[in-house]
Every structure is written in structure tokens, then in C-alpha cells.
Amino acid sequence: xxxxSNISLIRERVKDLKRDxxxxxxxxxxxxxxxxxxxxxxxxxxxxxxxxMSIFVNPTQFGPNEDYDSYPRDIERDEALAKSRGTDIVxxxxxxxxxxxxxxxxxxxxxxTGVLCGAKREGHFRGVTTVVTKLFNIVQPDIAIFGQKxxxxxxxxxxxxxxLNMNVRIKLAPIVREADGLAMSSRNVRLSTAxxxxxxxxxxxxxxxxxxxxxxxxxxxxxxxxxxxILGTPGARLDYLEARSYPDLETVHACKDRCxxxxxVYFGNVRLIDNILIENPS
Length: 282
Ligand code: AMP
What we know:
By secondary structure, the protein is of the alpha/beta class. It is 38% helix and 21% strand.
């Protein structure tokens, strides 16, 4: 596996690979890899000759009071994991490489970035869409894989690619969970032992809502009940629990063809998100 930190070098490599007729699958990450990230590599390998993973903790998607500085980082561990899963190239630029001067050009998707995480994290999606555009321009992938773990992000990227005619196919991969149901996240290591145990409340709430919907129960009652349970969970502070259409992210009052139940909960200063897509409820 190669590790490249320089934009002009990776451009050269991509040019050579394309000249040799290779297709490129791209997995953008912020590192501190876990099984969720590695499942995206598996997905990329299914349909592409070469897998490039980027590892870049992108400062422009963090707000001033967010966890950019404390976001976990360990490039050596990441390299070993990426390599073990068959990643061909890790692109690992530093901040100066990606943002050598003040950014005056931003990519911004409207409307669907104003709800859920976008309503709580001002400027977050503008940072995401801008860095993903830059990475697409640098890596020029045929396919890029994103996790459903960040369902709103995936919807936003899809819309950006459609609206701007970007020459890349977006694939969505399912959420990988710990044995107790907690969605894997790089931030999980920042939870205290007690909070880690209680964090199972996110997935439990989502699964309970899905079960209730499939039993024909009323959405608003299921959501209210879940909120009460979270309120009574030690250490948990609910940021949001919402039902939305997907990928349009309109508010829904009943779960019809396809709906997204999305949740964000703080434990201390660690913000966890999770979601479940419910298709054709019975
Ligand atoms: P991050 O490093 O958190 O920015 O995530 C990089 C990519 O991995 C994004 O497309 C995420 O949606 C995806 N991802 C993160 N956690 C998981 C998970 N538990 N299961 C599947 N994909 C994930």
C-alpha cells in the first residue's frame, strides 16, 4: 500500500492508473478507522480495480466550539488497518496541503442542509461539500463510497453530484454496529465507560421505533416515548430525534414508503448520531 500526502503526487498516480484503464473507488474518511470505514473499502473493492482512501480531519466542517482538536487521530494504526483490508493508496494530506491559502470558494447545498445536523452545526455541511468536491477533483474517482451512518451527509453529497454534474457515482453502504447495537464511530473512544454503556440508547430507540411502526403504532407516540426514555438515561442529552422523508429530508408525521428516523445525543461533550431507514413499513 502506498501513502501519499502530496496533491501533485496523487494526481500523477491517478493519471497513470487511468492510463492503464483502472477504475478508481474512493473512500473519504477522517481516520481513526474502525470496521465501518473498512466495510466501505470492501464495497469499493467489489466494483473497482483500485481503492484510494483519504484520511483528513477537515477543519472547515467543525464549528469553533466543536471537537476538531480532540478528534482522535492515529495514522500508523490507520495505515495498518487500511492495508490489511486491501486499500491500495492512502491519501493523507495535511491542512496546509488542502488549504494553502484562505478559502474564498465554497460549495453549498441548500435546503436539505438546514435541518437535522445542519440545523445544529452551522457551516458543517458547507465544509463537507467543499472538502469532498476538492477530494473528488484531486482523486477523480469513478465511484465514491459513503456510509449510511451519516445519512444526511450522503443525501447532501448525492444532491451535490447531481446538481453539479460531477462525474462520479455515489454508493451507500450500511451502518456497521458494535455487538450491543451502538453504531461504530471514531468518537466512541472518547466516551467514559458509563457513557459507552448508556450510548446503546440511540440504537435501541431507533429499533423500538421501527418495531412500533411495523406494528402499526402511531409515529408521534413512538417518538415521544423514545424521547422520554432518553431523558431518563443517565448522562444522555438529546440533541434531536426526528422523522424525515429520504433523501428529501422533509418532516413527516407518518412513516409511509420510506422514512428516516435520525437521532443525535450528547454524552458529555461527545455527540453521537445514528439513524434507521424504514422502507415500506408493514
Ligand atoms: P468519518 O471518518 O466519520 O468522516 O466517516 C467516513 C465515512 O465512513 C463516511 O462515509 C461515514 O458515513 C462512514 N462511516 C462511519 N461510521 C460508519 C459505520 N458505523 N458504518 C458504516 N459507515 C460508517
